[in-house]
Amino acid sequence: MSVLDNFDTWKDFLGDRLNQAQQEGLSERAVSELAYEIGDYLAKQVEVKNDQEAVLRELWNVASEEEQHTIANMMVKLVKSEGSM
């Protein structure tokens, strides 16, 4: 099973990766940039596996670069608020 098959699994995976990055000393800005790069990669390269990912991809594709950074920051905030980090 891929981490992308289930949105909750994806959020847990993202939280783990972001937590690891912070433990290795990455700044909040670097974590934010990492989240943006992950979002951009997923939107361009990975087939959606569920409805949530489809919505995120559609939002990402119509967003400006600034808005994409906002989406990425909101995903970071979401996994932090759910205790995944």
From TrEMBL:
InterPro entries: DUF3243 (IPR021637), Uncharacterised_YmfJ (IPR024702), YmfJ/YflH_sf (IPR038292). It comes from the Bacteria. Pfam families: DUF3243. Gene3D superfamilies: Protein of unknown function DUF3243. This is DUF3243 domain-containing protein. It comes from Pontibacillus litoralis JSM 072002.
